[in-house]
Automatic annotation (TrEMBL):
Taxonomic source organism: Rhodobacter lacus
Homology family: Belongs to the TonB-dependent receptor family.
Full protein name: TonB-dependent receptor domain-containing protein
Superkingdom classification of source: Bacteria
Taxonomy of the source species: Bacteria, Pseudomonadati, Pseudomonadota, Alphaproteobacteria, Rhodobacterales
NCBIfam families (alphabetical): TonB-hemin (TIGR01785)
Keywords assigned: Cell outer membrane, Membrane, Receptor, Signal, TonB box, Transmembrane, Transmembrane beta strand, Transport
UniProt membrane topology term: Multi-pass membrane protein
TonB-dependent receptor plug domain location: 56-156
Residues annotated as domain TonB-dependent receptor-like beta-barrel: 212-635
Compartment(s): Cell outer membrane
UniProt motif TonB C-terminal box: location: 648-665
Cross-referenced InterPro entries: Beta-barrel_TonB, Beta-barrel_TonB_sf, Plug_dom, Plug_dom_sf, TonB-dep_rcpt-like, TonB_haem/Hb_rcpt, TonB_rcpt_CS
PROSITE patterns named in the record: TONB_DEPENDENT_REC_2, TONB_DEPENDENT_REC_3
Amino acid sequence: MRHAPRLRAALLVCTALTLPAAPAQAQNLDAPLYLGQIVIGYAEDGTPIFAGENATHLGEQDLRGATSTTDLDGLLRQQTSVFTQKDPGNPGVSVNIRGFEGSGRVAMSVDGVPQTYRLSGHAAQGYVFVDENLLSGVDITRGPVTALGGSGFAGAADFRTLDVGDVLTGAANQGGMLRLEQTDNGHTSSGMAAAALRTNRFDLLFAASRHTGDDYADGDGAMVPDTYENISSQLFKAGYDLTESTRVTFSLMHYESDFFATSYGQELTNDIAKLGLRYAPGSALIDLRANLYTGKTETDWVSGTGAYVGRSLSTRTTGFDLTNTSQFDLGAWSLTSANGIELSQDRLGGTSGGVNPTTGKAKRAALFSENVFTQGKWEITAGLRANSYSLDGEASQGRIDVSDQSIDPKLTLAYQLTDWVQPYVTLSRGMRAPTLQETMLGGTHPGGGVGMIANPDLEPETEEGYEIGFNLSRDGLFTGGDRLTGRVNYYHMDVENYVTSQFVTNAWGQTGYAFVNVPGHSRTEGVEIELTYAHPEFDLGLSYTHNDSHLPSQMPGLGAGQYLPDDTLSLRLSRDFLADRLTLGAQYTYVSGGLFTDTYTTTPYQKDDGYELVDLFASYDLTENAVLYAKVTNVFDEVYAPWLSASASENGRGRTFHIGTTLRF
């Protein structure tokens, strides 16, 4: 058990920070509205009260605040039941929730725009490409979502970009923001500049970001090849109030990067455009939001020694969504009801796709209704989502033209047992449509060998499960001014027709590797604990996950392994000094072993190579609008391969010193 000494070392550092100091001043922050979330009321100070859900909302302070010690991948890995597929050379983010990843099992989006770029290869089967410098938050929901953005049964992850309110301070009508960071390991430089303008009816935002860096070294000082960074991105947003009740918004995002992954040097771009409308005339029955969007992710294979130099793959997604939220009374019950429609289409493009199709269309449509009933101590959430999809394309032996539908309900019963404990139980069903890349797989592995074949009979995955737990919210737990919040729960998920790759004969008589439905039910279950304790003298955060997976293995080479570690633990402690201007803290992370699948094998085995990481951080408020921060990640130079890494030989980053600043003016 090598993790015990590191844990004690981290706790010793943390304990030193809890000596008496001046009490922290309370802050009053306006809570933002998140994708698919329902407001069921408002506190006396105007703060929205949201319906109960198993969700985590990461904001500015989590991403790059005083206690932020890691990159976006690392931050996501610290959340309960959340992990990422990690390819050190690929800047994309692939979110894994409860051991499910890729091909839309987790619905990933940027500002609510679905990110559906897929690639069948030696890594994740789906990435989000977004610059973390341009993010204001990440919203994670575990389990099926029946409201907007609910196309994946494992959960959803929406990456929110900066808005005008993130740049301007207070009541300022114009201003800017500057972020700079430098690290020694890999000599990475990162910078972002943003400017914003706000008038009575009009607001405008422009931001640009740049990342450059060399290969990093692991804990032994060995360079990890092809881990350099070269990313640039821009963001533009505009909003105009047509009337007091009608607002129009428009946004553009451009992202570009070059990197080396899966044996090739690649150049990638991701472009998103979105037009939004909100109509809220002041009636409790009408709060209408509509969005029209398009996005395109494209990759060119520009270097390497394989046969696919010159390959190009792209996915263009266009779509529309409409949601209305109403509030009214039904006798003694209060009801908040969100109802709407989602329509979207993916169109593939490219040349020399190999096993990946370069033509084809996938269409998705959904009608949804999510209703929150409240009376006294009771809160009942009843959701229903009607899904349909169709796939259309030309495979090697014939045309693919398939479609299917599903009706997916979700019910949550919650009861406020005491003023600080709310037990709940959730029953749910969700569907995940097969992708074009799964259905129309073809070609052979570069260099010859076993062929890959399409499956015109591939059926959707269907999940049924339940979750039982309790929410906590307690003021004055041990002393005046302290606060404990969080959730403890158990989940159980059964998936019918789980999709994985196997050597089969398809409906056209071809023999080879194809994506197929596994007969019967595939199960995973686990325990999630997410707690935050705020004391006048310090802040403590704890995240723990235990996962017990009985899912069939995803064969590396046609995707990547998806098994979570058996146990993960993240513990963070910080405290403020000098009238809250100085923050010092430490973070301890433990990742156990678990089920693992070697490259090109389908038989999982228990791999007990766990690891532990300790980080230290500090920040100082030079002025109200100028913050200087420093951090040391992997303090003990641990040599480790990150769990769910693209290759067990690609170690994580060794000890790294970071220094940076955020300025608003």
